[in-house]
Amino acid sequence: MDFSLVPQNDPKQALRLRRFGMALISYVLWVSLGLAGYYSGILTLDQDLLLYLLGGIAVTNLLIFVVLRSGLNKHFKDPSLTLFQCLVAMCWILGLMYLSPPARDVMLMVYVMTMLFGMFRLSRGELLLLAVFALGGYGALLVFDNVLQASQDVLTRESLRYSVLIVMILWSAYFGNYVGSLKQKLRRQNHSLIRAVETATHQAERDELTRTYNRRFIMGSLDDEKIRADEENRIFSICIFDLDHFKRVNDVHGHQAGDQVLAEFTMRAGGILRSMDQVRRRGHPMGRYGGEEFIVLLPGTGLPGAINCAERIRELTEKRTFVNDIKVTVSVGVAQYRADEEIKETIQRADEALYQAKALGRNQVCAEPRFDKPQGLDTHSETVLTGRQKRLST
């Protein structure tokens, strides 16, 4: 259970409590000044009333903290309770001004500061409500204080004070509304900027036709995965796919149909990758390696898992037709990363396996030689037979 003053696992609640802390600091500062005024004789107030006032301020702030820290505030429309806190603060200030008329000039400054505290969080309607409450509250204070029956000098002084208050409150409400509009505009601009950056990043990383990653991104991913593999003793494999006789598809059916075949192939391959538990847990960056060639990075996947993945994609490609009933097959070369080797060496071994698949008649999945082959054996003589190769060899 978390007993800290500020929750560590809820950033929004933590921010709300920090804002409450700022308000609490303001209370402490003004109460300190009030006490200084009381002991210097400037603030005329009965000692018992002063204690009640201080106790009430402490209790209300404690209750607000409990509501915020317990999470009960999340059930309200405004979880930060900003309007409520501003109204409570104004009530206490009105009470002090009523009990000690000589302190009104100073306390009016605090009264307006409450408006300033709310302007950065409250909506236009809430600011208007707060302004109406502030002016109505002070007007009610004057009525209860029998100012209307007071001498002409007192009435003139209070009228002037109330007029200044009206101007300051209305200006604060207007300025708060202006600040709110700027915040909304800035928020919209930030969202637009974020979307623009995301779009630019996506376009910079993706192949425009197939929506897979481009060569630059996939090569960067391979370099990053190599670093992780070397540092954490992890494994990964790569598969290079090459659509067989793809030039014939373009020549017979046209480049537009060829483009659709490429897009459909990557969509189907992506579906198979997403369906495999081992691959799904670690991610499966697929990128266009060039032309009709694609490369798939399989983090945390050894040679057997990579072969299985490649074979499933090969089988699906062979069984299903593409646009205009076009039949296409794919040849695949698979290789597993060897510790501390260069990425280009891993790719070269996958390329060699791919060439072997083509030499064996295409529509094959060939893998690199196993690591434990007897010394002296030629690399190509021990290319692993997989999938359709095994069936043909029998």
Essential attributes:
single chain; 394 residues; alpha+beta; Alpha-Beta Plaits; 6-stranded mixed beta sheet; 6 strands; 65% helix; disordered C terminus
Can you put this structure into words, describing what you see?
This protein has 394 residues and is α+β, with helices and mostly antiparallel strands. It has 2 domains: 11-197, no CATH class; 215-393, 2-Layer Sandwich (Alpha-Beta Plaits), CATH 3.30.70.270. The protein has helices at 11-39, 47-70, 82-99, 104-119, 124-144, 152-205, 215-232, 246-253, 255-275, 277-282, 303-319, 343-359, 388-393, and strands at 236-243, 286-290, 293-299, 330-336, 365-367, 384-386. Strands 2-3-1-4-5-6 form a 6-stranded mixed beta sheet, with helices on both faces. It is elongated, with a radius of gyration of 37 Å. Residues 277-281 and 370-394 have low confidence and may be disordered.
Sheet/helix structural class: alpha+beta
The helix tally amounts to 13
The Cα radius of gyration reads 37 Å
Q: What's the shape?
A: elongated
In short:
With 394 residues, this protein is α+β, with helices and mostly antiparallel strands.
What's the structural blueprint in terms of helices and strands?
Layout: H1 11-39, H2 47-70, H3 82-99, H4 104-119, H5 124-144, H6 152-205, H7 215-232, E1 236-243, H8 246-253, H9 255-275, H10 277-282, E2 286-290, E3 293-299, H11 303-319, E4 330-336, H12 343-359, E5 365-367, E6 384-386, H13 388-393
Parallel strand pairs: 4-5
Antiparallel strand pairs: 1-3, 1-4, 2-3, 5-6
Helix pairs in contact: 1-2, 2-3, 3-4, 3-5, 4-5, 4-6, 5-6, 8-9, 9-11
